[in-house]
Amino acid sequence: MQDHFHWYFPGNTLAKPARIFVVSYNNSQVAKKCKYAIRKLFHLGYRSIHINDTHAETVQLAHFLLGA
Q1: Are 46 and 8 in contact, with CB atoms under 8 Å apart?
Q2: What are the Cα distances from residue 58, in Å, to 22, 45, 51, 65, 68?
Q3: Are 31 and 51 in contact (CB under 8 A)?
């Protein structure tokens, strides 16, 4: 995560409020469809929603963002 910090949080991103939702999907295709629908509904850019590829990445991101 630290290697990609500036990609995930460009510019003054950290000065803006954030919402973090944790959702579990059994099917990655459903997750991708949901992500696309949310972006379209709220007119959001590509980096506004992130879905981790692995459980390990999810744990790493949780530690980073939530201090868990």
Answers
A1: no
A2: 9, 21, 9, 10, 11
A3: yes
- Rounded to whole angstroms, the Cα distance separating 50 from 39 reads 11
**Cβ–Cβ under 8 Å, residues 47 and 61:** no
Q: Which residue has the tokens 């995560």?
A: 1
Spell out the per-residue pLDDT of the chain, length 68, in tens.
677 777 777 777 778 777 777 777 888 888 888 888 888 888 887 767 777 777 888 888 888 878 86
| Sequence-distant (≥ 6) Cβ neighbours of residue 1 within 8 angstroms | 8, 60, 61, 64
